[in-house]
Design a protein that fits this description.
The complex is a heterodimer of chains A (about 475) and B (about 90). Chain A has helices spanning about 5-35, 80-90, 115-120, 190-195, 265-275, 305-320, 340-350, 430-445, 450-460, 480-485; strands at about 60, 70-75, 90-95, 105-110, 125-130, 135, 150, 155-160, 200-210, 235, 240-245, 250, 290-295, 300-305, 325-330, 330-335, 355-360, 380-385, 405-410, 415, 420-425, 465, 475. Chain A has about 475 residues and is an alpha/beta fold. Chain A folds into two domains: about 45-145, Alpha-Beta Plaits, CATH 3.30.70; about 150-485, Peptidase S8/S53 domain (Rossmann fold, 3-Layer(aba) Sandwich). In chain A, the strands form seven sheets. In chain A, strands 12-13-9-15-17-18-19 form a seven-stranded parallel beta sheet, sandwiched between helices. A four-stranded antiparallel beta sheet of chain A has the order 3-4-2-5, with helices on one face. A two-stranded antiparallel ribbon of chain A has the order 1-6. In chain A, strand 7 (about 150) and strand 8 (about 155-160) form a beta hairpin. The two termini of chain A are about 40 Å apart. Chain B is of the alpha+beta class and about 90 residues long. Chain B has one domain. The chains are: A alpha/beta (about 475), B alpha+beta (about 90). At the A-B interface, helix 5, strand 14, helix 6, strand 16 and helix 8 of A face strand 2 of B.
Chain lengths: ~475, ~90
């Protein structure tokens, strides 16, 4: 047996011994029952003898019909006396706790009301204290589940049950809609179910082409892409020369710093990849990912077409140099067609980069009134409409049976903001990074999927919604779990 | 520092008076109302401009000059003239 096999073998042996011991105990209990049949008290036990009052997030206590009670006898009460008492009540002494002096476990063999049993023992002069043997359980109705997950592949985690401990996760209806604030239960992207399979991967780089990213945000810093960590030198451009792109790239003011001064880009970045389960703020669709901050819009939140093209060119160059950037998230646009921008996005597609774009917020049919870049008819462009918390097309969202591909949550979305902040925002801007995030989840499990197949997966894995019929190509809301084949 | 209502009105009136070639006293403020706009450029993009697709709160100002109405939009950080001769203009940022 080599060293690598040693621990699994030991663990297996321990499990087998425990199973055997448990099976033996069950047989002993069965024999005791056969040899010592007890008459019933003639009452039916309550299924939930303990409870009521205000619910809280702690595990709830309840009784089973075969529950025991725990009794502490006064000092000097010997074991024979205790056995006599239990026999008198038609009960059975199950256990003495050697390390918890005086306490015993007593089984009520005739399944009487547990409160009656407790009161009987309380009335005895030999008894100092008595309580139910409370079963620790989870209240599934309230969904107050503990954080339980297992880590695989090093830093990549999958969540096996429960939810992340990020304090604002309760507000993230887009990821887990429990009907909060008048929403519709399960009108979400099924993030919890998807996280059973993947919470993302640091091997995937998502370019957030926007107003930059507040890359020192406590909830983002861990997931920011840095070229030095990827053994890359500073970016070189024929016109710009060497550019310090350690934190990403800026096409604004040629100062090379993609620090967000507006907030819009930081909000989008948080939806895609705020660090999950870190006890801070929110959880991104990806807990683990690399976000490449790109700044082409200024502190007021607008920028030029040429700056957008310059940033896309940067992404393509870095891709050619080996950076695994497969997604550009583009939560912006205008109604003006630009052949140059279209060509830049096409070139990105030819490098294996999908381009997720906002359909726009003018409540218009983009089949008739196009909005760019979402409307470019390119194989790597995915146009995104916005939904509210009730699975309805948001009042502001554009739509298009032929030109908008999918819908995603985009109304009152909480995410990261500049100056280490968090805030709600609405728009197809907020829907777009949900789709980009799901694309990143897919890539974390299928890194070699082609752009065409990735787009196809995003469209075909949606949940059909009546309100979207004839409004978007897929007729549905994105479903992260289906997209990663977790369900 | 965000622009105040008074500053927004003053800047917009001055801009319109100059464009119209009239005195500021000939510009009448019709209304100043809060409104949500479709993007970070308040739904009034200039040519060759892109904006974030986020609902943005701001103000819609209507002025009268020579019997014609003119619209400005502002959010404390920017002021835009809407559809003046078929184009939008960012007049302050």
């Amino acid at each position: 047996m080599n060293r690598q096999n040693f621990l699994p073998h030991i663990a297996l042996a321990v499990v087998i011994v425990l199973i055997a011991a448990f099976a033996g105990q069950i047989r002993r209990w069965e024999n005791e029952q056969k040899n010592n049949p007890k008459p019933k008290r003639g009452t039916v036990a309550k299924e939930n003898g303990y409870g009521g009052g205000k619910r809280d997030s702690r595990p709830q206590r309840s009784f089973d019909s075969d529950e025991k009670i725990l009794v502490k006898f006064r000092t000097g009460t010997d074991i024979s006396r205790i056995r006599n008492i239990t026999l008198r009540f038609n009960d059975e002494l199950k256990d003495e706790f050697e390390n918890v002096k005086g306490w015993t476990a007593i089984d009520d063999m005739d399944d009487a009301d547990i409160n009656d049993v407790i009161n009987e023992y309380k009335s005895l002069p030999e008894v100092e204290s008595v309580q139910g043997d409370y079963k620790i359980s989870i209240d599934p109705q309230e969904n107050y589940l503990p954080v339980l997950y297992t880590r695989t592949e090093g830093e990549d985690a999958v969540i096996t049950s429960g939810k992340p401990n990020d304090p604002m996760f309760e507000n993230q209806w887009a990821l887990s809609n429990t009907g909060q604030e008048g929403g519709t239960t399960k009108a979400d992207i099924k993030a919890l179910e998807a996280w059973a399979k993947t919470t993302g991967s640091k091997k995937i780089v998502v370019a957030v082409l926007d107003s930059g990213v507040y890359y020192i945000h406590d909830d983002l810093a861990q997931n920011i892409w840095h070229p030095s960590e990827n053994n890359l030198e500073n970016y070189y451009d024929d016109e710009l020369g060497y550019v310090d792109d350690e934190n990403g790239f800026s096409a604004v003011d040629n100062n090379s710093d993609p620090m967000d001064e507006n907030g819009h880009g930081t909000h989008c970045a948080g939806v895609i990849g705020a660090t999950g389960d870190n006890g801070t703020g929110i959880a991104g669709v990806n807990w683990n990912v690399q976000i490449m901050p790109l700044k082409f819009m200024n502190k007021r939140g607008f920028g030029s077409t040429s700056a957008a093209i310059q940033a896309i060119n940067y992404v393509i160059e870095r891709k050619k140099q080996g950076v695994n950037v497969r997604i550009i998230s583009a939560s912006w646009g205008s109604t003006q067609y630009s052949k140059a921008l279209e060509d830049a996005i096409r070139a990105a597609g030819e490098e294996g980069i999908i381009f997720i774009a906002a359909s726009g917020n003018s409540t218009e049919d983009t089949d008739k009134n196009p909005h760019y870049p979402a409307n470019y008819k390119l194989p790597n462009v995915v146009s995104v409409a916005a939904l509210d918390r009730n699975d309805k097309l948001a009042s502001f969202s554009n739509y298009g049976a032929k030109t908008v591909h999918v819908a995603a949550p985009g109304a009152t979305i909480v995410s990261t903001w500049i100056e280490n902040g968090f805030r709600d925002a609405s728009g197809t801007s907020m829907a777009t990074p949900h789709v980009a995030g799901v694309a990143a989840l897919i890539l974390s499990k299928e890194p070699n999927i082609t752009v065409e197949k990735l787009k196809e997966r995003l469209i075909n894995s949606t949940d059909p919604l009546p309100t979207l019929k004839g409004k978007v190509v897929s007729g549905g809301r994105i479903n992260a779990a289906k997209a990663v084949k977790a369900e | 520092m965000a622009l105040t209502k008074r500053e927004i009105i003053t800047i917009a009136r001055e801009d319109l008076a100059e464009r119209m070639g009239v005195g500021e006293e000939e510009i009448e403020t019709i209304s100043y109302e809060e409104e949500d706009f479709p993007n970070t450029a308040l739904g009034a993009l200039e040519e060759d401009e892109m904006a974030g697709e986020m609902i943005t709160s701001g103000y819609r100002l209507i002025f009268d000059a020579g019997g014609e109405e003119y619209e400005y939009r502002a959010d404390g950080e920017q002021i835009r003239l809407v559809n003046f001769g078929g184009s939008n203009f960012l007049i302050y940022e």
